[in-house]
Design brief:
This protein is an alpha/beta fold. Among the domains are: 1-112, P-loop containing nucleotide triphosphate hydrolases (Rossmann fold); 113-182. The chain has helices spanning 19-23, 45-63, 73-79, 85-101, 114-149, 154-160, 162-182, 197-212, 232-237, 256-265, 267-275; strands at residues 8-12, 32-35, 38-42, 106-110, 190-193, 219-225, 243-247. A four-stranded mixed β-sheet has the order 2-3-1-4. Strands 5-6-7 form a three-stranded parallel β-sheet. Helix 2 crosses helix 4, helix 4 (85-101) packs across helix 5 (114-149) and helix 5 runs antiparallel to helix 7 (162-182). The protein is globular, with a radius of gyration of 23 Å. The termini are close together.
Length: 286
């Protein structure tokens, strides 16, 4: 895509980063040009976990100003080990990338391992279920408070309720994320699998899990395909889903020289894969 003069950002969300090895560049959380039109970022997950916890702590301090005298730090030392923090931190990353680099034509995310990636995609849906219950609970609290204090300006109280406003803000954020994930015109989920039975079985489970949350796989990429090898079982398992066969490389795809040669040798196959991502009426050159 970069060769076609499209502006591309590739972001590694996988904690076991390998983009540095592949491109032989010292990538970090700061954007670095790999080749013209291609920028790379490797996410520092620990930083974003700390950022998420800081945001939570700041919000609690603002909402519950009466608790400012209490030492909350000891509680956050426990909270930082809570399960699920990584997924929430990566949601912060995703939103930050969209905000800073949304003007580029392509944002490519190298995802986490299967289990964590599925948690990432399901997080907005699950969070919305939780938030809906929080809304009901908060509204009940407001009603009870109104009855106890006999204050008769409920509407005004709702508008001023900081907690309710924050819950509604969270709801809007997760609704937007859910919409982005489900928009198959803007978000293309490419499932990469190797041509073996274990990878095929895992890929089928991934597609089933994504389907449960209304997210569609855009394309199957049959990775490391040997010349003249059959992929009939893969084609049969994913009938109706577009596929791309990415050829096996005898030479390790490490370094820009080897990558460029691979692109040149397999230009037709890879251009076809790029074309399905491009706007209607646009086509990648060979």
């Amino acid at each position: 895509m970069a060769h076609q003069d499209f502006k591309v950002l590739i972001v590694s969300l996988d904690p076991a980063h390998n983009q540095c090895d592949i491109f032989e560049k010292n990538l970090s959380d700061k954007p670095l040009e790999i080749v013209p039109n291609l920028i790379g970022i490797e996410i520092d997950q620990d930083y974003w976990v700390k950022q998420y916890l800081k945001d939570v702590q700041d919000q609690i301090n603002k909402t519950y100003s009466c608790l400012a005298a209490l030492n909350l730090d000891k509680y956050f030392r426990v909270v930082k080990h809570s399960p699920g923090l990584e997924e929430y931190a990566l949601i912060l990353v995703f939103k930050d990338i969209l905000e800073k680099f949304g003007h580029l034509e392509f944002l490519v995310f190298d995802m986490l391992p299967t289990a964590l990636a599925l948690k990432f995609f399901t997080l907005p849906t699950l969070s919305l279920i939780w938030i809906e219950q929080l809304l009901v609970l908060r509204q009940e609290i407001i009603k009870k408070r109104d009855l106890i204090t006999k204050v008769k300006y409920l509407k005004k109280e709702v508008e001023k309720d900081k907690i309710l406003n924050k819950i509604n803000e969270m709801k809007k954020d997760y609704e937007n994320l859910k919409e982005i994930f489900e928009d198959c015109e803007e978000t293309h989920i490419n499932l990469v699998l190797n041509p073996d039975k274990l990878s095929l079985a895992e890929s089928q489970r991934i597609l089933s899990a994504l389907g449960d949350i209304n997210i569609r796989c855009s394309r199957i990429i049959n990775n490391k395909m040997l010349r003249d090898s059959s992929c009939d079982d893969i084609t049969s398992a994913f009938a109706g889903t577009p596929m791309c066969e990415c050829p096996y490389s005898e030479t390790p795809l490490i370094g820009l020289t080897n990558l460029e040669q691979f692109l040149k040798t397999n230009a037709n196959v890879l251009a076809e894969h790029v074309n399905h991502l491009l706007p209607t009426g646009t086509e990648a050159s060979k």
